[in-house]
Amino acid sequence: MINITVWGEGRHEKTNEVVKSIYPDGMHTVIAKGLEEDADFKVTTAFLDQDDEHGLSEELLANTDVLTWWGHCAHGDVKDEIVARVHKRVLEGMGLIVLHSGHYSKIFKKLMGTSCSLTWREAGEKERLWVCNPAHPITQGIDKYFEIPHTEMYGEPFGVPAADEQIFISWFEGGEVFRSGLTYYRGNGKVFYFRPGHETYPIYFDENVKLVLKNAVKWAKSDYTWNDACPNVPIDQAPEPITRQGEGLHLDGDDGFK
Asked: What is the DSSP string of 53-112?
C-alpha cells in the first residue's frame, strides 16, 4: 500500500465560476479520485486553508510516501515553516510530484535552488506531449505521444537545473516547446515535475494524465528512509585503530558542529 497525500490550494474554485464548473470541490479532489482507481493507493487530501498547518501536520507527512502539490495563486501564503517541513521529508525519502503552476511554489524553488521561471500564454491551444524515455516507469502504458486539446502554453527557457531524467517534452499549437516532465533526486527523495493541469481546463480527467500520475507515484515511492543527521563517531568506534594527532575542536560524543 502506498500512502499518498494530494495537496492543493483550494482557492480558485471559490472565486472563479469557470474553475468551479470544472472542479467544484477543487482540483486536488479530482486528482485524488484518479489515483484512488489503483487499489494499492491509500489517498488523503489536504489544502491550503484546511488549518494553520495547511493540512500538512508532522504526523501526516511522517506517514506520507508520496506528496503531490498543485499551487498557483497563493504560493506566498504557504508558511515557510511548512515548506521547511516538507523539504525535510523529501530529503528523508518522501516522494514529491509537483504539478503545473507548482513550478513557482516555495517548495519546488527551494528544492531546485533556481528561479523556476518560464514563458506562458493562455489561448486554449493544443499541447502534444512526446515521450522522451519510453523505458522509464513513468511512461509505461503511454504511446509515443498524447495530446491535450486545450490548455495553457508553457515555454522555454525554463529556469530549472538540468534534470536527472527528461521524461516528456511538449509542443504547443503556437510553436513553442517545453520540458514538461522532469525528474530530480534530492537527498533520498525523488521529485517529478509534470506540466499539464491548468485550472480552467478538465485536464485531470484525462486518462493519459491520470496514468502518468499513477506511474509517477509508484516511481517516487522510496523503500528507504534516511534520517538526516551529522553524528560524531568516537575514536573507539572507528573500524580501524586510530592514534589521536593534535588537538580537536570537538569532544568525543559531540553530535554536531559548533
From this structure: TTT--HHHHHT-SEEEEE-STTGGGS-HHHHHHHHHHHHHT-EEEEEGGGGGSHHHHHHH
Task: Give CA–CA dist 176/154, Å, rounded.
Answer: 8
Strand blocks (E) in the chain: 2-8, 41-47, 66-70, 95-99, 119-131, 145-155, 165-172, 177-186, 189-194
What mean pLDDT comes out for the span 79-105? 97
Which are the contacts of 245, defined by CB distance < 8 A and separation ≥ 6?
none
pLDDT at position 227 is: 76
**CB distance 92 to 227 below 8 Å:** yes
pTM over 0.85: yes
The DSSP element (H or E) to which 212 belongs, if any, is helix 207-220
Question: With bands split at pLDDT 50, 70 and 90, how would you rate the model's confidence at 167?
Answer: very high
- Domains in the chain (CATH in brackets) are 2-116+181-220 (3.40.50.880)
